[in-house]
Amino acid sequence: MHDQGGRLLLAALDRAAAAAGLGPGMALADGRALVPGLKTAQLDPLEDARALARLAEWCGRYTPWTAVDPAGGGLGAGAGLLLDVTGCAHLFGGEAALAADLAARLARLGFTARLALADTIGAAWGLARFACDGPAPWRVVPRGQARAALAPLPPAALRLSAAGGELLARFGLRSVGALYDLPPATLEPRFGPELAQRLRQALGLAPEVLSPLMAVPPHIARRVFAEPVVTGEPIAHGLENLARALCRRLEAEDLGARRLELTVYRVDGSLRRLALGTSRPSRDPDHLARLFAGSLEAIDPGFGIEVMTLAAPVTEPLSALQMVLSPEGAGRVDPRGLAGLIDRLGARFGLGRVFRQLPVESHLPERASGRAPALGPAGDSAWRRGRPRPLRLFAHPEAIEAVALLPDHPPARFRWRRVQHEVVRAEGPERIAPEWWRDDPGPAEARDYFQVEDAAGRRYWLYRAGGRWFLHGLFA
Amino acid sequence: MSRLLEALRAQIRELENGVAPPRHLPLGVPALDAWLPGGGLTLAALHQVEGARDEWDDGLAAGFCLALTAPLVAASGRPLLWIARQADLHGAGLAALGLDPGRLILVQAAGDREVLWAMEEGLRCPALSGVVGEVAELAPTAGRRLQLAAEANGVTAFLLRRRFAPLRRPEPSSVALTRWRVAPAPSGAAPLEALPGRPRWRVELLSCRGAGPGNFLMEWDDASGRFALAAALRDGSLGPQPAQIIGSDGRLAG
């Protein structure tokens, strides 16, 4: 039910309500008059769209080419899903078995669904909406018979707009079969380009491609469990098999995986995804399986996992020669051992947290060292020597209370984290100004840095900015 | 007599560990090398460094860790893994202390358990020269695991104790081969009296298997790019004096 101009109208009904004579667009008051015990809920198109998207994701267990089809009149009625099962049907025992399986699962999840399987998108769309009803909610049209199957359907089955359908009704064309008789050259000037295009698409004469909900990775390995699994051991075993299958595919094309995505599809219609990256392209199945080992326990199997897929969305060329390495002598680094370690650390902490430091050309100390991948090449620039720099640099300078005799002098004493320090020796000031030549100059004020030593011998790096004092780093 | 003692000691070590006798790396500070058994830092073992104060490390202990690890990296040419909860080591500061930051792989972990896990993973990779982990507390079982992993793969492990809160419980005894405590010391002479001179530390060897506790005053020499013993020493603990020093385990040292 939704609110339109102050009146409450019915938007969508279930089977029982439709059987009682209610229809979409009817006022709520009339509906309640016909069916006294009518249960209503507010229409929420956003939530409906999200639920549909989730269902489309779950249908990824059959094929990765899934899309949400928003076409349909008005209030979301008529929205559906499109799946491209070319080449996947044999995994499920044939097209008819796939359609029956999907229909049964959707019914179990509580949806009333109508399915049609045909060799073009247009034909399947029309058949699902206009040819499936009643006891057999699914239909499979063998290849080449779409034309015959579409003939008895009304012209609305061709995905026409409301205006187009009206135009055809005025001409007295009440079925798609009638359109076949008209010479195709006259369709366009008479009825507009839309009708001719839709007819050609439905019959397979014009190309139409599904654009999937999520990017389809070119390399996927899929494993369907005979029974839903709940325990960890079959999941780990399945993962090893998937890794082996994926690596065999990658080997055939001389590629190595840089990013991996593991998706598990659960019985209750939801899915879980795990993604990780590697620092070097790899197609070693044991290594890849071990990378996931830590996070497998985090996956909650719920009532059971039915399908697992492992995909490699990002790959890089990796020839067989690169994989065979001989460490020459004890001093040389064995990249495979180090790369494996970096991958394992990256899988646990995130590859962004395993890094080296490279010098960056900048005066500002917080920008003078940049993060680089742990296994990259050495940078070009060298570290700047000459000025004293602390061993530990705080990411956020801490405010301190300091007392200095004269503005340009180092502080005589300061207080940091509630501990008083007496300054015995100091060096400075070193003025570091904002880098005005860059788009992002950095701090607003120039800073005067001092290296100070307290009575005990500890050394700190302080700076004064605009009259306030801060502690930026600690020396060794 | 001392040769006989050395031979007996080597035999006992072999019986204890069951592996080849450990190798040692001279640190470049002659007095320190002479004090340590074997003439240098024992490789493929666990060492522990901590700061003097109970609150937090001020960078001194990290600097001493670098003093121990920089010769290791330079000698073997393999990178060093440094695991910490806050990755706040500054590249320019590292370069100033003689370690090429390009040879240092930093890992930012979330807590002590993660740091110890990462240390174990790193110790199993013979492509590293050493692993440094910053922890707040260390249970003896975890220390033992690290020691076994280090011995098995030939990678040296260093534990840097960073305590963020004052210590309340008595400390459990450590399983590290050597334990060091680093305290600050006023710096040396400088061209101008008011300027800080060469940085100095008071390094205390709390315990060492095969040698006694010792006290050293070390300073960083910018000119030579190395650490050295400061000119003025404390407590006359220059080197092993056989008749006088009894190690913590009751055996003669040196």
Relative helix content of chain B: 25-40%
Report the CATH C-level class of chain B. Alpha Beta
Radius of gyration of chain A: 34 Å
What would the principal axes of the Cα set say about the shape of chain A? elongated
| Residue windows where pLDDT falls under 50 for at least 5 positions of chain A | 73-77, 325-335
N- to C-terminal distance of chain A: 71 Å
Give the helices and strands, then pairings.
The complex is a heterodimer of chains A (476) and B (254).
Chain A: E1 2-4, E2 7-9, H1 15-19, H2 28-34, H3 45-58, E3 66-69, E4 80-83, H4 95-109, E5 115-117, H5 121-130, E6 138-140, H6 146-150, H7 162-171, H8 176-181, H9 184-191, H10 193-203, E7 220-229, H11 232-252, E8 255-266, E9 271-282, H12 285-296, E10 305-317, H13 320-323, H14 335-349, E11 354-359, E12 369-373, E13 392-404, E14 411-416, E15 419-432, E16 447-454, E17 459-465, E18 468-474
Parallel strand pairs in A: 5-6
Antiparallel strand pairs in A: 1-2, 3-4, 7-10, 8-9, 8-10, 11-12, 13-14, 13-18, 14-15, 15-16, 16-17, 17-18
Chain B: H1 2-17, E1 24-25, H2 30-35, E2 41-42, E3 46-51, H3 60-76, E4 80-84, H4 91-96, E5 104-108, H5 112-123, E6 130-135, H6 140-153, E7 156-161, E8 178-185, E9 200-208, E10 214-221, E11 226-229
Parallel strand pairs in B: 3-7, 3-8, 4-5, 4-6, 6-7
Antiparallel strand pairs in B: 1-2, 8-9, 9-10, 10-11
Helix pairs in contact in B: 5-6
